[in-house]
Design goal:
With 315 residues, the chain is an alpha+beta fold. Helices cover 29% and strands 31% of the residues. It has helices at 17-32, 39-47, 96-108, 125-133, 178-188, 200-206, 256-270, 288-294, 310-313, and strands at 2-4, 7-10, 57-61, 67-77, 80-86, 115-121, 137-148, 168-171, 218-223, 226-236, 239-247, 275-281, 298-309. Strands 1-2-3-4-5-6-13-7-12-11-10-9-8 form a 13-stranded mixed sheet, sandwiched between helices. The protein is globular, with a radius of gyration of 20 Å.
Length: 315
């Protein structure tokens, strides 16, 4: 345990989830206007193999033990750590976020060649200032989009993929599709700006082996037995979140992405979920933004990624 000003800082434990979750929500609402993280979703992240909770997470408490802030690093790849710092608006501009960022960076440097990444809402000018002073460089802008499924979409007619060979959308088959879906995912995102290549084990930990994974919210596009595309959805409390939407290069331009999105909307609706969101690269080269707009999704907020290499962290 360490001391910073009037606060105490220690590693997080799963028992801290009850107090950390409202802080996460408060930060999301302040920065994005809403939150797409559920208690179960946050719990799945904390329990994930990509988060080293005992060594790379921190909770900030009052002397009486009340948790007021937290931070953690999520390794989306072996040497790519995404640092998330959650300081509620009432405690911002007191140096707490800067201090937590420093603690995370100090641990990150123990991974050779590591890259530190932070994701910050464009509305959070204070956090952008902290990152700039710490030597982070803005890399890419992203757009959060959302849809209310109780309202009819502009393009309400269900899309049907075109061309040959025929494309058929089917449910994901647990125990059978994992390896093929992984390969299709990696191939589809190979030319994406922000793609970090992962091993099958790393991909599985963040997707199909994640405690929050629901195969009923995952669909694949098949062409003569080959996986041509995929989409994964997640339940986040009362809301739905769309994870990867991927179509391999050979099958693009045939309407598969829109059909996958609409199929997932139907699955969400069947589960009583009416508010669905996603995040997309603002400069996406495959036209994904236009696909989501055709499906009826609207931009809600923007954010950006900022990165720093471990060599820079070390100074």
């Amino acid at each position: 345990m360490t001391v910073f000003k009037q606060w105490l800082i220690r590693p997080a434990t799963l028992a801290d989830m009850t107090d950390a979750y409202p802080i996460h929500l408060a930060c999301d609402v302040a920065d994005y206007g809403t939150s797409f993280i559920s208690y179960a979703g946050l719990q799945a992240l904390w329990q994930s193999a990509t988060v080293r909770l005992s060594t790379e997470s921190w909770v900030v408490t009052t002397p009486a033990g009340r948790i007021v802030s937290y931070a953690l690093t999520n390794y989306e790849a072996a040497a790519h750590g995404v640092i998330s710092v959650y300081v509620p608006p009432a405690l911002r501009s007191q140096g707490l976020g800067t201090h937590l960022l420093g603690l995370a960076e100090a641990q990150l440097t123990q991974t050779p060649g590591a890259i530190a990444e932070c994701r910050v809402a464009d509305a959070n000018g204070a956090a952008q200032h902290v990152l700039a002073r710490a030597g982070y460089v803005r890399q890419r802008g992203y757009v959060r989009m959302a849809i209310d499924l109780t309202r009819p979409a502009p393009d309400a007619i269900l899309a049907q993929p075109t061309g040959q060979p025929p494309l058929v959308i089917t449910p994901f088959l647990p125990g059978q599709d994992e390896a093929a879906v992984y390969r299709a995912h990696e191939a589809a995102f190979l030319d994406a700006y922000d793609h970090v290549p992962t091993t099958f084990a790393e991909w599985s930990a963040g997707h199909v082996a994640n405690a929050g994974f629901d195969p009923g919210l995952c669909f694949v596009g098949r062409a003569e037995g080959e996986i041509a595309g995929l989409i994964m959805g997640w339940r986040r409390g009362a809301n739905g979140w769309i994870g990867p939407v991927a179509v391999t290069r050979a099958y693009r331009g045939r309407g598969l992405a829109l059909a996958l999105v609409q199929r997932l909307f139907t699955a969400f609706s069947d589960e009583g979920i009416t508010h669905v969101g996603l995040s997309v690269d603002a400069a996406n080269r495959t036209g994904a933004n236009r696909v989501y707009a055709r499906a009826g999704m609207q931009p809600t907020q923007t954010y950006a990624t900022y990165t720093k290499s471990a060599a820079v962290v070390n100074g």
